[in-house]
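Lab notebook page, bench 4
Experiment: in silico fold of construct C2
Operator: M.H.
Input chain length: 479 residues
Purpose: comparison with the prior construct
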Amino acid sequence: MTGKDTSEAPASGPEDSASELAKVPTEPLEEVAASETMVAELAPVETPQAPAPTATKPVPQSEDLPSAPLLLSVEGVSETSVTVTWEPPERLGRLGLQGYILELRREGASEWVPVNARPMMVTQQTLRNLVVGDKFFLRVAAMSSAGTGPPAVLDQPVHIHESIEAPKIRVPRHLRQTYLRQVGEAVNLQIPFQGSPKPQASWTHNGHALDSQRVNVRNGDQDSILFIRSVQRSDSGCYELTVRLEGMEARASINILVIEKPGPPSSIKLLEVWGCNAALEWTPPQDTGNTELLGYTVQKADKKTGQWFTVLERYHPNTCTISDLIVGNSYSFRVFSENLCGLSDLAAITKELAHIQKTRKTDVEVKSKGFVQRDLSEAPSFTQPLADHTTTPGYSTQLSCSVRASPRPKIIWMKNNMNILGDPKYRAFSEQGVCTLEIRKPSPFDSGVYTCKAINDLGEASVDCRLDVKGEGLRGVSP
């Protein structure tokens, strides 16, 4: 006796209610109650002399009627439907169960309207085509051939409202870390969120309400936009977006840091000058631009030209030594502070000049007694000779050998004992004692004996090899 059924919500008009009630092939619930009441009122007085009269029409006994269904409850409510369930009654009646009648009464109305025109053998029904804002009561009664039993009524009315989706904020990836802006730039944050129906969005800055004269906020159905036309350092801080809906809320925080160029170092001092060196010291700037310093840039300028040259960049300590200064010049020094916005507009400049003076020659002379300079002169000798080589026409090839000599020798290349250095077909070069001859796109005519000769003041040496150019080679290459 269990099942499911789907019905449309009935209209609440009295005429429709009366017509639908008339179609039900059973007596209304009110009439059953009246009959029971009538039975109670027509009960005879107990007298020993006369028995009670017999009724002309028998009234259904309680054993013939089913009892009220059990555990009537709402299983689910949406924007357009409601589903109710119940359990069969404890007593089905002697004549058996024919089905259930589900009835509806809208709030403010007095009549119960059947949802199903005839009894249905189901214990779950879904009412559809409902409208948001509807509010009504439901009851269900079991029916047998003897009549309709007492109904089971919901304790609370059913209210059709919009489905609620919990609010959720989706912060863009680039805003999940500190958002940096420079003074004077614009801030335009678009933060999407979810929630149904439309949630209420609000912003705070460091826990306080926003300054409406500086900050503009536009809230849409699916996002909230925060806009500042020209930010100042006072706009830095934590901006929190709160989205509220039906007692639920979601929060997201965005940290904004507004920065600008730092100020110059507070002071600079020339500590000492010795030889070609100068020592400087300075104090950090009072204003770092609302962010950490990346370091200092140190520059120098000599008195003659007045041009500034960078000596150190992104230097972190507050003291430094400038070296390799030119003797006879006088130098000024200046230091800039640097952060993410760049160098400070101004610099701290030394008031005194650093004069690099000539130093007197010392009387200490290096004596070379007992030191004998080694003679490294050497006649040419080949440590790696030339090797015989075979190549293909049209493909450039190289001949290489290694020579050792001091002083550096003169290298001469010959083919069949004839000097070929002036021929553009050959290119000779040497590096670190390695002598190479490149033969560009050789032909069979270039075959022969090649000689490399090295000559210096101490003598000469030579090596040779044979080159054979064989094969068809590249097409189109002229011999």
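Observations: The mean pLDDT is 82. The helical segments are 14-23, 29-41.
Next step: discuss at group meeting.
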